[in-house]
Design a protein that fits this description.
By secondary structure, the chain is of the alpha+beta class. The chain folds into two domains: about 160 residues, Jelly Rolls (Sandwich); about 220 residues, no CATH class. It is built from seven helices and 17 strands.
């Protein structure tokens, strides 16, 4: 009876302390979650098909995700920008008699410091689509402003009908320079300023009212729509063609000052793209005055556009996170009073590149070297996973109604039983 345990009738099999490695793959689909409990597919818990014992490591093996993200949305805090007028076209000063033009001048002049906020539609844009969207939004917000002013000012009640018959305010024209990859903002008569430092008001009026950025880390880079359009936080004032070209003339003549007789005078021209048409047959002249004696005003974004959206997303799995991650720098009491880092340790399980733009589906397993969670000693049991997909700034990925899947590789240690063999010849 020495080979039997006193509490069981089964013989004890000694552990040889020898193991073999078994790789087990688990396919996880977001549509298999409890949708009643986890309505958003970017964060959910799921029960695995079985207990996975003696887990030495877990690796992301393959994945398939939909590229349906919105580059511009309230969550990203980049659908709004503001502007104001600096000067307005005065028909009287140009010996032009027109009731509608006079009413527009009165409305703008009497509200010269009013900030006008435009909101673009949520989604993904091409550069030309963005230029068209901004043109229509800029003109539309001023049309609504003028109608409200005319309706509430008895002296100009007559102008509402004239504005409607004219098709509304249409002096703004925003175009995309495909060679320089920059947006140009223009107005055929009224001088304006893009108040890019007005974003705090945009936050309070648009974003905070919707409570959509609770879990997003503050950032000094992607701070609003103007940053995606190529602007800094400094206001940008449109200048007349004569002012712009006078500056260019001075620079050009300074450069060519060593060569007498090469002085040029660029004043009096209108902006033009020399590489080709902006619209059919315009020969690059995209901003022309439409009123007698009017001066066109325009400005160029100082930097190229950035419409590509996030380049990576992060997969978090509770208990398996193994990647350390830096955090966006922000001006706060912590960063200004300590030299410690605000980065995060074991913040995610995998960093997944986003190689395509909406709308598409991408499949990938090319991840050398693949990060993995290593357990020593091996994890005794894994049965349930809590999953979250987010961007670097902490914002959860919004997949909408699209589903996704990924494949996890579990490396298991299987114990071997001790076996003795006697060979008789």
């Amino acid at each position: 009876m020495s080979s039997f345990n006193t509490s069981t009738s089964h013989p004890i099999i000694p552990n040889s302390n020898q193991y073999y490695i078994e790789q087990k793959y688990v396919s996880i689909h977001s549509e298999d979650r409890d949708i009643l409990r986890f309505q958003q597919s970017s964060e959910f818990e799921i029960e695995l098909p079985q207990d996975y014992l003696n887990v030495q490591s877990v690796t992301l093996s393959a994945w398939s995700f939909p590229a349906n993200y919105n580059v511009f949305s309230p969550i990203n805090f980049n659908i709004g920008m503001s502007f104001r007028f600096v000067n307005a076209y005065n028909p009287g000063a140009n010996s032009f008699s027109d009731p509608l033009a006079e009413a527009i001048f009165a409305a703008i002049y009497n509200n010269i410091d009013t900030e006008h906020i435009i909101l673009i539609e949520t989604g993904f844009y091409s550069p030309d689509q963005m230029a068209t969207e901004l043109t229509n939004k800029f003109n539309s917000i001023i049309t609504n402003f003028l109608q409200n002013y005319f309706d509430n000012t008895p002296a100009y009640n007559y102008a509402t009908a004239l504005l409607v018959s004219a098709g509304g305010y249409d002096r703004f024209n925003i175009v995309y320079n495909a060679v320089g990859q920059r947006l140009w903002f223009g107005n055929t008569a009224d001088q304006f300023e893009l108040t890019n430092n007005y974003d705090a008001q945009v936050v309070s009026e648009i974003v905070n009212s919707q409570c959509v950025r609770k879990n997003v880390l503050p950032s000094l880079s992607n701070w609003g729509l103007p940053s995606y359009l190529g602007f800094t936080r400094c206001p940008a004032t449109a200048l007349s063609a004569a002012q712009v070209n006078a500056n260019q003339t001075a620079v050009y003549n300074t450069i060519t000052g060593l060569f007498p007789g090469n002085d040029v005078n660029l004043e009096g021209t209108v902006p033009r793209f020399y590489y080709g048409n902006v619209s059919n047959g315009d020969n690059g002249y995209w901003l022309l005055p439409t009123l007698p004696g009017a001066v066109v005003y325009f400005l160029q974004a100082p930097a190229k556009i950035n419409f590509m959206g996030p380049a990576f997303m992060y997969l978090e799995i509770d208990g398996l996170n193994c990647i350390d991650e830096t955090s966006p720098f922000n001006v706060s009491e912590f960063t200004s009073t300590t030299n410690q880092t605000n980065s995060r340790v074991n913040s995610s399980f995998a960093k997944i590149p986003i190689p395509s733009t909406p709308i598409s589906q991408w499949f990938d397993n090319n991840y050398p070297p693949a990060p993995y969670k290593y357990f020593n000693p091996p994890a005794e049991r894994i049965r349930k996973l809590k999953i979250k997909l987010r961007y670097h700034n902490g914002q959860q990925v919004d997949f909408g109604l699209f589903e996704y899947s990924f494949l996890l590789q579990f490396t298991l240690l299987r114990p071997q039983n001790e076996r003795k063999y006697t060979i008789v010849k």
